[in-house]
Fold this sequence. Notes:
By secondary structure, this protein is mainly α. It has one domain. It contains two helices and no strands. The longest helix is centred in the last third of the chain and has 30 residues. The chain is rod-shaped, with a radius of gyration of 16 Å. The two termini are 21 Å apart. This is CTP synthetase. Keywords: Membrane, Transmembrane, Transmembrane helix.
Amino acid sequence: xxxxxxxxxxxxxxxxxxxxxxxxxxxxxxxxxxxxxxxxxxxxxxxxxxxxxxxxxxxxxxxxxx
Length: 66
């Protein structure tokens, strides 16, 4: 499950960090610390999301017990 969550983290962090940076730039915040903060917030927020998604996908793909 950890490997699945790690792969999902790469995808989710990219999407969330990109969306956060785009939102910050569209609001006219052009300082380096604002852009870096949005990127960091997206990466941190992606940790629990990828863990939950990984757990749900892993349990959905697990074969039923006989």
